Amino acid sequence: MHFDTVWRDARIATLSPQREGLGEVTGAVAARDGRIAFVGPESELPTGWDAARTVKLDGRWVTPGLIDCHTHLVYGGDRAHEFELRLKGASYEEIARAGGGIVSTVKATRAASEDQLVAQALKRLDALIAEGVTTIEIKSGYGLDLVSETKMLRAARRLGRERDVGVTTTFLGAHALPPEAQDKDTFIAKVCAMIPQIKQAGLADAVDAFCEGIAFSPEQTARVFDSAKANSLPVKLHADQLSNLHGAALAARYDALSADHLEYTDETGVAAMAQAGTVAVLLPGAFYMLREKQLPPVDALRRHKVPIAIATDSNPGTSPLTSLLLTMNMAATLFRLTVEECIAGVTREAARALGKLSDIGTIEPGKACDLAIWDIERPAELVYRLGFNPLHTRVRNGH
């Protein structure tokens, strides 16, 4: 059998659900036509195999390429001033109600050109790529009108052409009430009307909403989800971050790919997610930046066997974070996730949260050959270290 590339003498965390723990294998990974063609002990390589390129890894660890499954990477301006206000005691809700928060980023994003949005986002994307990220989800939500939302989504799509990285896009029109809107119900009707146009333009892979007291009610969120379903787009939800509006249960009712944040989710919501197969995406960066006290229900998620992903939630206001390695440490330190849960959370379960587990997220034959190769002695180093990047090589589609 002929391979394009074979990586030999590797310790491989396959993350295969058919194997225990991280699915560890000592041996080789082989790629052909951008896909994984073999993974296993070198003694099991096909008889008579050859390869255009053979790379000896000298015992380095290989994981699936990292996946950041919840980001707001495209936006204009920054909100460093609000950070200062929070340090002086202002709450997130107080800042938002005073015209700051999401609305301030909306003004900067509307004023920026598509080229400017791409240029600014590339700096953030490059930081993630440098740590082994091969796939990223990017939400809109800072335009809040059709022209600006589509501008953001076009910019996000362009990032996947400017860099060798997989980009999935999510329409988050129901993120906040824009300054010109008179009332939430009227604005939600406009968001619902945007969805078929965005779908027809091929700009979004999913639809999201912010279900919260300072954003939109469960009933308003359901209207957005009904429109998404009518246009054959899967849904995701910012749920139960600041209060329990039963967003997790709402997400599950619509078979959402994921429900994200979840600090105030109750046992009923967790059980509903388990029944629906909805992934829990935990976002420790926002929890840290907002100095929250209410922990997400990790024990309940474990009891009900809800898959747990983690992500940066990279955004200008509540999580200006562009490091999945630091995110893993935060998830372990703040939420008490295990090393295995953290690594699975930025690979296998992150892929599941994007509806892409059939193609990425584990090192198994037939999947895209997206790999991260690390100069580490044990996988725990990826979670343990702070401010240290041990990436040796990033591989995307076999290259």
Topology at a glance:
Blueprint: E1 2-13, E2 24-32, E3 35-40, E4 50-56, E5 61-64, E6 66-68, H1 80-87, H2 92-97, H3 102-111, H4 114-129, E7 133-139, H5 146-162, E8 166-174, H6 184-200, E9 206-211, H7 218-230, E10 236-239, H8 247-253, E11 258-261, H9 267-276, E12 279-282, H10 284-289, H11 298-303, E13 308-310, H12 324-335, H13 339-345, H14 348-353, E14 371-374, H15 380-384, E15 391-395
Parallel strand pairs: 1-4, 1-5, 6-7, 7-8, 8-9, 9-10, 10-11, 11-12, 12-13
Antiparallel strand pairs: 1-2, 2-3, 5-14, 14-15
Summarize the structure.
The longest helix has 17 residues.
Characteristic terms for this protein:
eight-stranded parallel beta sheet; about 400 residues; seven-stranded mixed beta sheet; globular; alpha/beta
- Shape descriptor: globular
Strand content: 15-25%
> Could you report the average pLDDT, rounded to the nearest whole number?
96
Low-confidence stretches: none
* Helical coverage, percent range: 25-40%
Spatial strand sequence of the major β-sheet: 6-7-8-9-10-11-12-13
Structure explained in plain terms:
This protein is an alpha/beta fold. The chain contains 15 helices and 15 strands. An 8-stranded parallel β-sheet has the order 6-7-8-9-10-11-12-13. Strands 1, 2, 3, 4, 5, 14 and 15 form a 7-stranded mixed β-sheet that branches. The longest helix is centred in the middle third of the chain and has 17 residues, at 146-162.
